[in-house]
Design goal:
By secondary structure, this protein is mostly helical. It has helices at residues 12-21, 26-33, 37-45, 52-62, 66-69, 80-90, 100-103, 108-128. α1 packs across α3 and α6 (80-90) runs parallel beside α8. The longest helix is centred in the last third of the chain and has 21 residues, at 108-128. The chain is elongated.
């Protein structure tokens, strides 16, 4: 069985920034999540990756998206779907649709690359006329 490599991994630095922004102690968060302070510290330093359940619990606790904690988007209040929609509006792209299954493993940078490629192709066609 082939193992799929993920481009996006948990960003402990973002977890730490969210905690610090709220002036919270590691122990307080650990107690609320039912984990040890050491485990939370390892998440923040990247020495340990949270499992999917803990990732969702962290996102819920900090009221941010899982996509933000995975480094897929830069705004903690925005989902990847909202980012794609925003980029489409900014670039005035209509009719370029992908299913959630097709997009769920793409990073923000790859989505930007797709949009840039489509714009490049459109520009090439305009030059031919």
């Amino acid at each position: 069985m082939e193992m799929m490599m993920l481009d996006n991994v948990f960003r402990g630095d973002r977890l730490k920034a969210l905690r610090n922004k709220r002036d919270l102690l590691q122990q307080d968060i650990a107690d609320e999540l039912g984990i040890t302070k050491a485990t939370l510290s390892r998440f923040e330093t990247g020495a340990r990756q949270p499992d999917a359940n803990m990732l969702v619990r962290l996102a819920n606790h900090f009221n941010c998206s899982v996509d933000y904690l995975l480094g897929r988007i830069d705004d903690p209040d925005m989902t990847l779907e909202e980012y794609i929609s925003k980029r489409s509006e900014e670039e005035d792209i209509i009719g370029l649709h992908f299913s959630n299954d097709e997009l769920k493993n793409l990073s923000k940078e790859k989505i930007d690359s797709i949009i840039d490629f489509v714009n490049y192709q459109i520009e090439l066609e305009k030059r031919k006329r």
